[in-house]
Amino acid sequence: MLERLVEKMLKNKNKEEQRTKIGQIAGVLGLVSNVILFFGKIFIGLVANSVSIMADAVNSLSDMISSLLTLIGFKVAAKPADKEHPYGHERFEYISGLAVSFVIMIVGFQFLQTSFKKILEPESISFSTFVFIVLLASIFIKIWQGRMYRRLAKRIQSQTLQASGKDSLNDVFTTVTVLVSALIEHLTNWYIDGFIGFVLALYIIYTGIKMIKDFIDELLGSRPSEQEVRVMEARLSNYPSILGYHDLLVHNYGPQSNFASVHIEIDACWSLTYAHQIIDMIEKDFKENLDVELVCHLDPVAIHDDEYLRINKELTSILADLGEGLKMHDLRVKNENVLQFDLVIPEEISEDENQLLEKIRQLVVQRIGNYHLDVRLDHNYLL
Q1: Which residues pair with 377 in a beta bridge?
Q2: What is the per-residue pLDDT across 271-305, written as a single tens digit (0 to 9) for each?
Q3: Is the pLDDT of residue 237 over 70?
Q4: Is 24 exposed, middle or buried (0-12, 13-18, 19+ CB in 10 A)?
């Protein structure tokens, strides 16, 4: 039923409009269901004189706020680029997701405090069939809500909706805990509600902190996934006319605003017009097939110069012999006595960089000739 509703509302809409509409659908469905849960739980909490049920109701109130933030987030993210924000507003989705994560963590601390108080001052609750039915119904509503968030999140690759889905799963555990502890207390007079709630609150706090970290990483600019990098590598490898590539950098300004840059190694004998045709083809390929705005930088390589090839081969051998996983690119022989290149330093390298450069200088003099080195250190964490 949800799929049919979504398909009907997405008819005749482009990709950007579809993403916004799906986010708004998720926000509205979440808001309506959380309003129902809040009023239902607060009512039976008052009827049963149960602190834990009322705490669960407060949790649903926070979910109402989260749903509103989701709606606002997708609406702002859908705004087109303007003079102040030339790359658009899609990163606001990360901000709204970060706000949802903080709400989750705050609720966790509130639930922790309530549970601790319940441990110190245990109270019996007035359990009834009506209370049982409402709590059971709320569990099924939250399961449906979590599945709804996850399905829509997967469809548009939204971390905000994924966060809301995780929050819904936490709420299922919370309400199940409340229900089970209420049943046990009713049947045995054992006051375990506070202890179970305390453990569950710690889990909710941990989830909130982890989600905060994930969204902060996105706002700061995190590394793309291994799969994304492999897909880009495969695309670049489809062009046998280029000699190689390096310095692939990927960043985004939202889930659908992906940018990248790469250095393309080409035959130095190519004409500028032909080289431009090749990189223009690559950039177009990335845009049409990966939806990535790629910018290519040309690195001409003198593959027909025997002396250059000798130096390149020997320098590559020197770096391999050092055994540190070192690589180099952009080799230039300048003024007949200067070797200029970029040295890629692996993340895990332990040796001091100055000492490492001195070793390379000594080996170059011994095995290549009396060259001075002009080295730029490159800490590239992709390629």
Answers
A1: 343
A2: 999 999 999 999 999 988 888 889 999 999 888 88
A3: yes
A4: middle
Per-residue pLDDT, 10:
58
Closest CA to 29 of 106, 136, 142: 142
- Measured CA to CA, the distance from residue 382 to residue 230 in angstroms comes to 10
Q: Cα 2 to chain center, whole Å?
A: 26
Question: Nearest Cα to 59, choosing from 215, 197, 213?
Answer: 197
Q: If 0-12 CB within 10 Å is exposed, 13-18 middle and 19+ buried, where does residue 299 land?
A: buried
Q: For residue 191, what are its two tokens?
A: 């006051």
What is the Cα–Cα distance from 286 to 259, expressed in whole angstroms? 10
Residue, of 247 and 221, whose pLDDT is higher: 247
CA distance 343 to 374: 10
What structural domains does the chain harbor? 2-220 (1.20.1510.10), 223-301 (3.30.70.1350), 305-383 (3.30.70)
Q: Which residues have C-beta within 8 Å of that of residue 341, sequence separation ≥ 6? A: 315, 328, 329, 330, 331, 332, 374, 375, 376
State yes or no: pLDDT of 11 exceeds 70. no
Please write the tens of the pLDDT for every residue from 83-127.
777 777 777 777 877 887 888 788 788 878 877 887 887 766 667
Question: How far is the C-alpha of 107 from the C-alpha of 203, rounded, in Å?
Answer: 11
Contact indicator for 328, 316 with CB cutoff of 8 Å: yes
Q: Are 376 and 343 in contact (CB under 8 A)?
A: yes
In this prediction the pTM is: 0.61
Residue 75 near residue 87, CB atoms below 8 Å: no
For residue 345 the two structure tokens come to 């330093």
Buried b (16+ CB within 10 A) or exposed e, 150-163: bbbbebbebbbbbb
The DSSP secondary structure of 250-301, one letter per residue, reads EEESSTT-EEEEEEEEEETTS-HHHHHHHHHHHHHHHHHHH-EEEEEEEEEE
72, burial (CB in 10 Å: exposed 0-12, middle 13-18, buried 19+): middle
CA torsion sign for 220, 225, 231, 233 is positive
CA angle 9, 15, 21 (to 5 degrees): 35
Instruction: Decide the pairing of beta strands 372-378 and 338-344.
Output: parallel
